[in-house]
């Protein structure tokens, strides 16, 4: 009680946490409860490192994609019982290509290479599989897998922007997809994750162990309240939020681009998860997770702030 | 002079020379001496002890998503091998690894041969090594992408990077330590250039070269696994590194450890079957190393 | 000058009335083992070295002289028999028995000549740094290497290296000194000077010397007792007295006769005939 | 015998010994000979040539998101240094690096000393090295997290892993190659155990140890940079690896290369200021290496 | 037997009427450089070696004998003066001048004794593998190491190693043979046998021999001409004939006188007095 260690990864999708950190919202919410909360913010890279840190007890709250949450929920069920704490907002993922011949995913040919953070297991790869399953039938879900290639986001973005390498498509995330679209005139969106998932959906989430939540109810509550407050703040002050991002991350990102992402109508800052069950059930269907989720509440803690999720 | 300090005068004696009858001058070592010398037994016991330690530590931690027990790992290893999944991955990795290793060894040989024969070659080797050796493989990724594209060539490129420099460093140090007399003997018989390197410097520097080869081999593995996981895999057709990475992402920690255990097993196998044998039939037999 | 005739030969030496020997070598066989085979270097060699002896091991190349010396120094364990020092079985090397090796690479290349001579004095904690330095310079002077005190071994000639090793051993003033062909690389004058220094030091300190040489003359001049070894694998051929000769007996008749006799014993008489004849002739001239 | 084959009989002659007057027996080398021997000049020229090559290649590729030019990189480096950002990051990394390196060196020393003095120590070293050396650092991450948590201790742990094995391998090979006579000389003076190791084996094996130290140093950097990137930053305090990672994430390739260039520069500096100096005042001076 | 008296001394040798020498050493100074200092090993040494000569370099330890030999072999370049072989300046080593080094580590440890002897024959492409092997075994027989043909050098004693090096050099049957104290580690009989073999081979092939020794007797016995060098740094002290002596002259009066004379010249008369006296005495006895 009174201490919380949060791990985030790199990127604009963690803006909510940056605001909470900069504005000391967790501390503020804690004081409302008469609790002095010490917050430790750590940056890690990669879902695997985040999971390791959480399971080893080095951190209390982990931030990662929906995919890793579902995996760790599935594996720790009946043991640590890791579940989602909150969403960090809805962001669309674009599959961007600089090959003018590729208009839809059906146009991908043997010569094209799609960069992903991790082949077959990343959220991007799953969404591509969902799209393939929908368009070509459930059995053909892995139709594009052989075109995909594991490349870290920045290298893939550099390749798509600059051209001249085999990689001509990238299923990325903000801000890379936006940079690609902005900096290469040939670059265009081939697939939008919202289309596949049937509307806006949570991209990044936070999760924790059941034990932490039970042992530190007040701290936990203060943390979730702080998140909600941060979401409100960003909606109200996008410009200030952008500045906070640049400051906290010591980032050199182009401010105008950042602002355009934050203000984009596709992006929504909310704490309640949205539209995650589809992906979860797809993962179960293809055998990535063993437990079948019946409702989003299976893998999210039931809290007031996340009420009304889906 | 006092009597005590003077050694006593003894009588002389002579023994007629007699042939040796009762001992063979040279006799082969007894069977068990050989076995013990090879030390499979000792190392086997050591391995068993380490496995026991692992099992105990893992049971005590009781967190099999982070540290599975030895037995769980062995089960996963067995299943992986039985299903043919692991052998396939190992074969893929091995292919790339051996190519990269061979290329690295060849390049190191060329560089050090140059370095030993010309002054500018020496400066070049020293400068390149101290520049590039500390660079992590990930730093080379964009360049690899640009020059070699995706797939095995880029992998080979980063493996060469991790084999070349340490091996060149060690080989070069070995060459420089070759005794002057030996070098002169070789030159005296008209050896020079490549023939001097091959017939004098390489065997004389073999202990250093072999440890360079061992280090290179180990780092080739390290790099391969790290690199496969970054950009080695196309559509699931990856090697052992990819297998480890994928299972780690999916939190199948027992499979991750099975993959790593396989790396360890291959390491032990190569060390004992290849490098120990090389040492035994060369430097140890020649009395250059105990 | 001491030129009395050698005593008549006996087939086996008797121990009656002798004091307890300092170094006892009893039926010692030495072997070298490699992965595939075992080579016997000496076969059941026995001899006793008494306190104050200048005991010489003499024999043809490869007969196991160096091996015996190393065994006495504690580097090689006998496969048969026993080596005892002061009644106790030798179990390992130690600074009580200082060795001059036959090889040129016995000087640590990372120490200057001076430091090399100081090294055993400091390592065995026998002297402090200042005293060790003074002693080192004294002995370097004696072997004629004072001007090279600060040189590193790799800048020395073969004979100079060997002289450093000799200085290093003598500076230790050990109770037992083991020397393996120490003067082989030296020219006549330097060799003689070294022999004299050794003699002087022995007269002063009365240490016990075990000395390997391949030169019959040197054996007679340096030693008071000589063990003759047969060719590979070394067996005892004879044990002779030579206390009657010293550095100045080189030309005497008795000396020449002793030389011939040893020559005859060491090498099969028939095979060695021309050489022995030559020696006969030179002795008679 | 034919007359031609008989060498001619010449008259004898004798020269009275005369003192040398006109030459100093030992004279110091001339100034420029020293400078040329140090070779700063030669290496400087080589570096300039490499920089030129880089500039040309980058301009030809004309793809500064993947490969910025030398000048762009230098500008970024200059700005980074001037703003104090890079020095700060380097300081952070250096602290961890040196601790890990020192720990690795100490451990390697202990392991090899054990290995040289006992048979079981030798088996242990051989087995552990061939087992753990090929394991990539990421494999140790879960264990590091479990035992040391997030932060510098885990970093130090993985650095130790990358320094220890290659250094131990090289040191051990060096120890085993120490000439028997030298070893016997040391034991003859009553040296044994640690004193034998320190006073005989370490200096005699120094060429091998120094190249082990060089390899260890380089791989410590590689590992640190790769590990910092996984471990990221706690409370905004990252090292050089984090700097590189972050700028890579933001597609500031010139800054990425500036970070890497700094690694290269530090590598050159350490090689020439530390390792070359060590070699010059030890193995080269002692004639153990040319 | 050849025992005519040495010719009267001249201060400088004359070249009048002599054929062109095979090896010309003219005013050669040799230096060793290290990072900090330069050491002069020989100072303006001149001598001529004619075809068929058995030319001996004789001098005290450290006077630069080995350095001169290495310079003639092409390993060290003179800082002053010129070394010419057949009129051409020596620019590097080659298999036309086979060297036996003073050091024991001249045998590649990775080759067996047999392979070591075959090595230069194969490396210089002089013989095929079969012939080389036969030649190697022949010479190993001569140096008494045939039973050790398959042993590795590290299993040999010091003298055995040196004998392998001798066999290796003789097997090459070179035109010019350079030997640096090759017999220093050998016992009297083996040494004599080696000297005889060398003599026989020379009589058969009439190669040119440059021979370094520190033993005056060996110089007189082996050589036909002797260059005396003064102590460090080596300068020419004298050049003498010794073709009148051979392996069987060891005891003759002329031989003894020549020994004394060289001794006197080599070492400052006063300092060497006791040693010389001893030799006088032994010669007179
Ligand atoms: N390290 C070794 N390994 C195997 N055999 C060896 C080793 N050292 C010596 N021998 C063998 O032991 C025998 C005796 O060798 P040792 O060195 O004692 O001879 P030595 O009498 O000193 O000869 P030398 O006068 O030539 O030095 C030789 O036949 C040699 O082959
Ligand atoms: N590698 C070297 N570096 C520096 N100086 C050397 C080197 N080798 C020899 N010297 C010096 O050159 C001089 C002559 O050495 P050299 O080996 O030629 O003597 P040598 O006549 O062969 O002596 P010895 O009979 O003792 O072998 C010596 O004073 C020695 O100090
Ligand atoms: Mg010997
Ligand atoms: Mg010499």
From TrEMBL, chains B, D:
- Entry's family note: Belongs to the binding-protein-dependent transport system permease family.
Family annotation (SUPFAM superfamilies)? MetI-like
Q: Name its cellular compartments.
A: Cell membrane
Membrane found in the keyword field:
yes
Residue ranges spanning the membrane: these are: 96-116, 128-149, 155-175, 196-219, 225-245, 257-278
Q: What is this protein called?
A: NitT/TauT family transport system permease protein
Please tell me where this protein is predominantly located. membrane
Domain of life according to the entry? Bacteria
Q: Which PROSITE patterns does the record match to this protein? A: ABC_TM1
InterPro entries per the record?
MetI-like, MetI-like_sf
Protein topology in the membrane: Multi-pass membrane protein
Q: Which UniProt keywords apply?
A: Cell membrane, Membrane, Transmembrane, Transmembrane helix, Transport
The ABC transmembrane type-1 domain sits at 86-275
Automatic annotation (TrEMBL), chains C, E:
Which residue range or ranges hold the ABC transporter domain?
23-258
Asked whether the UniProt record includes Chloroplast among its keywords, one would answer no
Q: What is this protein called?
A: NitT/TauT family transport system ATP-binding protein
The entry's family comment says: Belongs to the ABC transporter superfamily.
Say if the entry is tagged with keyword Oxidoreductase: no
Q: Which UniProt keywords apply?
A: ATP-binding, Cell membrane, Membrane, Nucleotide-binding, Transport
Classification from the root reads:
Bacteria, Pseudomonadati, Pseudomonadota, Betaproteobacteria, Burkholderiales
What is a GO molecular function of this protein? ATP binding
**CDD domains registered for this protein in UniProt:** ABC_NrtD_SsuB_transporters (cd03293)
Q: Name one Pfam family in it.
A: ABC_tran
What SUPFAM superfamilies does UniProt report for this protein, alphabetically? Answer: P-loop containing nucleoside triphosphate hydrolases
Q: Which InterPro entries match?
A: AAA+_ATPase, ABC_transporter-like_ATP-bd, ABC_transporter-like_CS, ABC_transporter_ATP-bind, P-loop_NTPase
Question: Which Gene3D superfamilies does its entry note?
Answer: P-loop containing nucleotide triphosphate hydrolases
């Amino acid at each position: 009680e009174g201490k919380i260690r949060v791990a985030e990864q790199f990127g604009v999708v963690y803006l909510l946490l940056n605001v909470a950190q900069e504005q000391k919202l967790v501390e503020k919410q804690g004081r409302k409860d008469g609790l002095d909360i010490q917050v430790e913010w750590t940056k890690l890279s990669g879902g695997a490192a985040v999971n390791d840190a959480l399971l080893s007890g080095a951190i209390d709250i982990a931030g990662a994609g929906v995919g890793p949450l579902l995996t760790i929920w599935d594996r720790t069920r009946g043991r640590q019982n890791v579940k989602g704490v909150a969403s960090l907002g809805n962001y669309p993922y674009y599959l961007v290509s600089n090959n003018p011949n590729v208009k839809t995913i059906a146009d991908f040919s043997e010569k094209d290479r799609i960069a992903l953070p991790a082949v077959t297991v990343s959220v991007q790869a799953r969404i591509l599989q969902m799209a393939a399953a929908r368009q070509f039938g459930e059995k053909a879900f892995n139709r594009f897998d052989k075109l995909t290639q594991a490349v870290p986001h920045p290298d893939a973005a550099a390749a798509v922007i600059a051209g001249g390498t085999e990689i001509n498509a990238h299923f990325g995330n903000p801000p890379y997809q936006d940079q690609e679209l902005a900096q290469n005139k040939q670059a265009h969106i081939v697939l939008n994750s919202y289309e596949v998932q049937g509307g806006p959906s949570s991209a990044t989430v936070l999760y924790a162990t059941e034990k932490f939540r039970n042992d530190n109810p007040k701290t936990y509550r203060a943390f979730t309240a702080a998140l909600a407050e941060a979401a409100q703040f960003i909606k109200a002050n996008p410009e200030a939020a952008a500045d906070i991002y640049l400051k906290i991350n010591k980032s050199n990102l182009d401010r105008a681009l950042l602002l355009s992402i934050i203000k984009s109508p596709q992006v929504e800052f909310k704490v309640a998860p949205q539209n995650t069950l589809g992906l979860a059930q797809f993962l179960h269907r293809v055998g990535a997770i063993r437990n079948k989720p019946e409702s989003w509440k299976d893998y999210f803690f039931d809290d007031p702030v996340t009420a009304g999720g889906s | 002079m006092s009597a005590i300090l003077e050694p006593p005068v003894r009588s002389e004696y002579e023994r007629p020379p007699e042939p040796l009858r009762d001992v063979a001058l040279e006799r082969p070592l007894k069977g068990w001496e050989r076995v013990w010398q090879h030390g499979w037994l000792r190392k086997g016991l050591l391995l068993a002890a380490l496995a026991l330690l692992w099992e105990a530590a893992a049971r005590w931690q009781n967190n099999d998503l982070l540290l599975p027990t030895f037995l769980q790992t062995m089960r996963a290893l067995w299943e992986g091998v039985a299903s043919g999944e692991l052998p396939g991955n190992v074969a893929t990795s091995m292919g790339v690894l051996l190519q990269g290793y061979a290329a690295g060894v060849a390049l190191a040989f060329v560089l050090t041969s140059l370095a030993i024969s010309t002054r500018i070659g020496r400066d070049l080797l020293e400068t390149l090594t101290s520049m590039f050796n500390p660079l992590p493989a990930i730093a080379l990724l964009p360049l690899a992408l640009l020059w070699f594209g995706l797939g095995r060539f880029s992998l080979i490129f980063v493996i060469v990077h991790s084999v070349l420099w340490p091996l060149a460093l060690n080989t070069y140090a070995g060459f420089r330590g070759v005794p002057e007399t030996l070098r002169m003997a070789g030159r005296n018989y008209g050896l020079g250039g490549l023939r001097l390197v091959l017939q004098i410097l390489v065997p004389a520097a073999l202990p250093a070269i072999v440890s360079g080869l061992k280090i290179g081999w180990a780092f080739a593995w390290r790099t391969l696994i790290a690199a496969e996981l970054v950009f080695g895999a196309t559509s699931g057709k990856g090697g052992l590194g990819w297998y480890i990475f994928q299972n780690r992402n999916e939190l199948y920690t027992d499979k991750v450890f099975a993959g790593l255990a396989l790396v360890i097993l291959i390491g032990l196998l190569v060390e004992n079957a290849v490098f120990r044998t090389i040492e035994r039939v060369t430097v140890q037999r020649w009395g250059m190393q105990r | 000058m001491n030129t009395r005739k050698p005593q008549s030969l006996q087939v086996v030496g008797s121990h009656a009335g002798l004091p307890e020997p300092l170094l006892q070598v009893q039926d010692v066989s030495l072997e070298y083992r490699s992965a595939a085979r075992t080579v016997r270097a000496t076969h059941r060699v026995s001899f006793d070295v008494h306190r104050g002896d200048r005991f010489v091991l003499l024999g043809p190349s490869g007969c196991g002289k160096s091996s015996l010396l190393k065994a006495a120094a504690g580097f090689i364990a006998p496969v048969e028999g026993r080596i005892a020092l002061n009644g106790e079985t030798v179990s390992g090397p130690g600074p009580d028995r200082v060795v001059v090796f036959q090889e040129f690479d016995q000087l640590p290349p990372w120490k200057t000549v001076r430091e090399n001579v100081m090294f055993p004095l400091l390592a065995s904690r026998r002297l402090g740094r200042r005293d060790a330095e003074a002693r080192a310079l004294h002995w370097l002077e004696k072997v004629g290497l004072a001007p090279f005190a600060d040189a590193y071994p790799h800048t020395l000639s073969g004979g100079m290296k060997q002289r450093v090793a000799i200085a290093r051993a003598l500076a230790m003033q050990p109770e037992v000194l083991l020397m393996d062909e120490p003067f082989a690389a030296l020219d006549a004058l330097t060799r003689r000077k070294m022999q004299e220094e050794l003699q002087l030091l022995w007269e002063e300190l009365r240490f016990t010397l075990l000395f390997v040489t391949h030169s019959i003359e040197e054996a007679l001049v340096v030693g008071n007792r000589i063990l003759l070894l047969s060719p590979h694998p070394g067996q005892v051929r004879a044990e002779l007295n030579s206390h009657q000769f010293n550095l100045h007996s080189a030309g005497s008749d008795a000396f020449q006769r002793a030389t011939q006799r040893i020559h005859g014993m060491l090498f099969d008489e028939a095979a060695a005939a021309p050489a022995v004849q030559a020696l006969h002739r030179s002795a008679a001239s």
